[in-house]
Amino acid sequence: MNNRIAKFVVFVFLAFYLPVILIWVHIISFEYRFHMLVVMAVIMAIYSLIAKRSLHDLGFRNDTLKASLLWNGGLSAFFVILMYSLYIAGLIREPTVSSQKSRVAPSNSPDKRGRTSPFPLWGKGVFWRD
Known about the structure:
Layout: H1 2-24, H2 33-50, H3 65-88
């Protein structure tokens, strides 16, 4: 039993954590994050076929679909109406993001104290307080 748990933990780490860690430490470029998502989805699909898992085993079932759609659809409609009503009432401010497409290049310039971030895409103030 412990051998199965160990294999499962290693598989989960390789399938779900390793790609994120590789992107985080810049071994894989951040621009390829969606490519990694597709690759991992294909690997998981192939693994499911090799392990002979049915769609029912994976959670694609018809017996709970109607109830799930009713709950999720109803809650989604409720929150959309709530947010729209709050926006119309003036309780939610206007969007502050510019409609123009502007990209800010990542900067690894030093801050006031001469420190640089090891992760330039994260910006300043992540690892230390000013």
